[in-house]
Amino acid sequence: MAMRKFGGRRSALAALATLAILAAWAGSSGAARNPAAPSGTLHFITSSAPGSDAGFAAVNAAFAKAYPKVKIAYQSIPNQNYAAAEAARLTAHNVDLLVAAPVQVPSYAKGAESSDSLFADGGGFLDLSRQPFMQRYTPSLLAALKYKGKSLMVPTGLSYVTGVYYNKSIFQKYGLSVPTTWATFVKVANTLKTNGVTPLGIGGKDSWPAGLTMIAAVQGQYPTSAAMTALAKGLWQRQVKLTDPKPQAVLDVVQQIYGFADPNFAGVGYNDIPAGFASGQYAMTPDGTWNNTTIAAAVGSNFKFGYFPFPTSNIRKNNAYLAGKNELTLAVPSAAKNKTAALAWLNFFSQPKHYKLFLDHAGFAPSEPNIPASPFMKSIAQYTKVYLPVWPLFWNPNPKAGTAAIFPFDYTDLSPLGTLSPQQAASAAENAWEAGF
């Protein structure tokens, strides 16, 4: 993904930067008007990923033709730099439309509010509830995205996170079937290794993409929303330790997954993986559905690939569905200088013709009803019948805790990304977590 944001989580530094500018933005959130006669410059920023970047570019080009009096100053910012860039642009009052995701935190995690949430609490984003274009989106999805009763965000789509792309030709060559349990996955991976094929392509250079394996491992141990809620609450209330057997098992699985990747994967960039997968360098690659268009472009029409839930549990039913999330959500700052253009763009984007144009490039599942699913999304329909939210949507990092407990499973310190064993990484995470109280 270059890293996709989950739930608008921000660094403590970015949160402090946002707090500093709340006063300047508060009280300026007057009623948003229906977009009309836009002109001037529209300053628009998003976090970056190849598919969504292409989708926004396509819609921007169509919008520019429809509204020639608007100049779109669009910038796609690397994910690791987005939080700082967002804070700086908000401070300078030179952004009209941006990716943001304020999320309410549960009472037990008070103090863990993201910078977007703090900004929203200060009146920093327009309430879009009464905008006519919001009626085009699936009502239940808008309800799930509301922040303290207000619709501050426009959804761009849904993505599924806990899956694995696989090369059908390689699987056929070695008589392999799609694995449905952890034991059968290990058997598939070992068969590939025995035949000189690297089982998994993982981008470790940017740290976060390897985190998809951690999210999948959590899903296997905690396969329901109730289980993840209990885990998050238990950690915050200090009734669960990261060194307990079940949380420890998450890192044990991640370490085994790392063992099926190229030994040098810590130095491989995320954006290099599709080309390696296309060339047959790896038989599989764990990635989100957002990257299906990028992978399809890399592999070409003669390359056949599929996608299945990463089976990190030995209980088959725990691996039956893909876990997902709302993708990039768009918001308008209350003090934006060109609200008219921002609202006109959102109205244009939400029109089915233009929204489908975006989806064709971005590879997301639609957030509007009656938008035809892509062939790829149809191919994984059996895994998306039940919607399972991913772990980062339940987790609220403690800004007072150490960095080893951010996720809070310390996958970045596991060898070979770092130097620790699963037991050592679990201890480091537990110590870092306790330091926040």
Describe the structure.
- The chain has 16 helices and twelve strands.
- By secondary structure, the protein is α/β, with parallel strands linked by helices.
- The protein has a five-stranded mixed β-sheet, sandwiched between helices. A four-stranded mixed β-sheet has the order 7-8-6-9. The protein has a three-stranded mixed β-sheet with strand order 5-10-12, with no helix packed on it.
- Helix 2 runs antiparallel to helix 14 (352-362) and helix 8 (211-221) packs across helix 10.
- Mean pLDDT is 90; it is low at 1-35.
Helix content: 25-40%
Determine and state the CATH class of the largest domain: Alpha Beta
**CATH topology (fold) name of the largest domain:** D-Maltodextrin-Binding Protein, domain 2
Distance from N terminus to C terminus (CA atoms, Å) equals 33 Å
Write down the overall mean pLDDT: 90
Q: From the coordinates shown, what is the CATH architecture of the largest domain?
A: 3-Layer(aba) Sandwich
Strand proportion = 5-15%
Give the SSE order as H and E letters: HEHEHEHHEEEHHEHHHHEHEEEHHHEH
Annotation, overall tally of beta strands: 12
Radius of gyration: 22 Å
Strand order of the largest sheet: 2-1-3-11-4
Shape field:
globular
What's the structural domain tally? 2
Outline the biggest β-sheet.
5 strands, mixed
The CATH superfamily of the largest domain is known as Periplasmic binding protein-like II
Query: Count of DSSP helices?
Result: 16
Query: Spans of 5+ residues with little confidence (pLDDT < 50)?
Result: 1-35
Structural category: alpha/beta
